[in-house]
Amino acid sequence: MALFGFKSRNPNRDRETDETRLKLLNGTMADLVGQIEREKEGLNARYGRVAADAAFSLQALENRNSKKMGVQVDELTRSMARSRSRLKALDAQLAFLHRLQSQIDDFVRTATPDRPA
């Protein structure tokens, strides 16, 4: 009968398979966090430059009352608002990934009690 021919896999092989999957998951998580942090760093740097440009443009606008400067200040203001919005989105993504990483860590501790921490 086929029923008696069933054999389970070696527990060491199962453990190795599980560890490989967890390493892949942790590597992917670390890569995503790194990508988001690099994007935030670049965006913060650009935001700082735009803020400085906006301050100089505003000062020039006050000194010359130039219509052209007013348009530039408006565009810089919109750009800064978009940057702030994107930074909030990136912070939310990072918070989500950190919560997810915590759940993964909890899973590893509870699902694989014989695995060293």
Q: Can you describe what's shown?
A:
By secondary structure, the protein is an all-alpha fold. It has a single domain (26-111), classed as Helix Hairpins. 85% of the residues lie in helices and 0% in strands. The protein has helices at 11-64, 67-111. The model has no long low-confidence stretch (mean pLDDT 85).
Task: Throw out a few tags for this protein.
single chain; 117 residues; mainly alpha; Helix Hairpins
Major pleated sheet: none
Task: State the share of residues found in helices, binned by percent.
Answer: over 70%
**Count of separate DSSP helical elements:** 2
Structural class: mainly alpha
Annotated CATH topology = Helix Hairpins
- Please write the CATH class name: Mainly Alpha
- Record field, number of beta strands: 0
N-end to C-end Cα span: 43 Å
| Total number of domains | 1
Low-pLDDT residue spans: none
Mean pLDDT across all amino acids: 85
- Rg for CA atoms: 26 Å
User: How much strand?
Assistant: under 5%
